[in-house]
Every structure is written in structure tokens, then in C-alpha cells.
Amino acid sequence: MASMFGKPRVSAERPPQSVAECNVAVLGCRGAGKSGGSSSELQSCGIPARSRAATAGFSLTVKFLTKRFISEYDPNLEDTYTSEELVDQQPVLLKVMDTADQDGPVNCERYLRWANAFLVVYSIEDRRSFEGCGRYLDVLARHARGCQRHSPVLLLGNKLDMEQYRQVTKAEGTSLAARFGCLFYEVSACQDFAAVQHVFHQAVRELRRE
Ligand code: GDP
Ligand code: MG
To answer: Closest ligand to 162 CA?
Structure first.
């Protein structure tokens, strides 16, 4: 597939390279669900109290990596978290920058220089957040044109559990991803834990293919 982010997304028949570290920046407008939510919000997703702390360990970024429950997460907090992961039986130090832009890309240098993979997140029940992703993908594509190395980009439609409030169709997500030649997934940070983990691991796999 052609990619706007440098080289073709999948290199022909090249065995995966070993990658010791993967720096993933998680981008998207506020409220897309990059960080996670409070215990009451997890309850509204239908997660019973006794398993909320455990399941929180697998939500989108912070909880996925820290494996601990943060009940009231500060929406302005921007931080980087580290986790040793096993991806296809190979260890990798996964570092995740949970960014906290308000309405779209601003001061992008901080993550453009640091990251070697990007997750661009919107909420399927918030069209504005989807339109924001278009702007992030533009910034990343422009940046990639001036770069030697290729950094994988994955587009993520979050809050799949909010199907009844959906404003962005799956076809629109697929089409935006196709325009930029990136992978696309729909997930629910509060329900579909294996799928969320899969997305992070896919970023590592894509990087290994470079
Ligand atoms: P951020 O600004 O992108 O970091 O968004 P947050 O992670 O702070 O989440 C914004 C709101 O969406 C919070 O109220 C979360 O609890 C909620 N949220 C996050 N992920 C999901 C999800 O998958 N499903 C539902 N229903 N709510 C979610
Ligand atoms: Mg956040």
C-alpha cells in the first residue's frame, strides 16, 4: 500500500528487524479517549466494580502501560510512560507519550522529534475529533516528506462501545486511513482490552518491518 509517511507501509519480503525501543506518541483532540477515564465512567461502560481496577490496566494509554487504576485523570497532563512488552516473543521497551492537545496539532515538534510511531485517535461518537485526525495526519505526512526514516502511523477510532451515538462511520475511518496509507482500527478503551493491546503491538510490528 502507498503511504504518505515515507516508504511503502509494508516492505517487500524483508524479515522483521529487531527493535529494542519503540517510542509511540498518542495524538488526537481532547476527549478522544487517549488517556482513560474515571471509575464512574468505566462503570457506565458496563464494567463491574470488582474488575474495574484490573481492566483499567488495559485501556488506551496510561492504564494500558502502568497497569494501575487512576481514578480522576487530569486532562491537561501530558507524560511519557514506559513498559517492557513482549511482541511476538521478542522484548521491546515501549515508551508512550500521552499528549494533551486541546483541539488539534499545536507545538508538534516535541513529539515529531521524539516518536518513531504514532497513534492518531478519535472518538467514533465525535465528528470534531475525527476531523482533528485529518489535521494530525497532514502534519505527520508533511513531516515525513522531510525525513529519512519512516515512522508508522495508525489511525484509531475509539469508543466502539458507544455505537448508538456513532457520528463517524467505519467506512469514513477506512477511507481516511487509505488516503494516508496507514493502518486503521476501531476499538473500545473500556471494553476491548485485547484489541487495544493489539494496536500498540501492531505499532511495534510495523516499526520492525522498516
Ligand atoms: P483524552 O483527552 O483523549 O485523553 O481523553 P480521556 O482519556 O481523558 O477520555 C475522555 C472521556 O472519554 C473520559 O470521560 C473517558 O472515560 C471516556 N472514554 C475514554 N475511552 C472510552 C471508551 O472507549 N468508551 C467510552 N464509553 N468512554 C471512553
Ligand atoms: Mg488525556
So the answer is: 1
Cβ < 6 A, ligand 1 pocket: 28, 30-37, 41, 45, 73, 75, 158-159, 161-162, 188-190
Quote the Cα angle for 56-58-64, to 5°. 100
Environment of ion ligand 2 (residues, CB < 5 A): 34-35
Is residue 117 within 8 A of residue 200, CB to CB? The reply is no
Chunked in runs of 10, what are the mean pLDDT values of the chain (210 residues)? Answer: 61 68 94 68 45 40 55 68 90 91 90 94 96 97 88 95 96 98 92 84 92
ipTM of the complex: 0.99
Question: What's the chain's Rg over C-alpha atoms?
Answer: 16
Among protein residues, the one with the nearest Cα to ligand 1's atom 10 is 31
Ligand whose nearest atom lies closest to the CA of 32: 1
CA dist list (Å): 39 to 83, 122, 191, 204: 23, 21, 13, 30
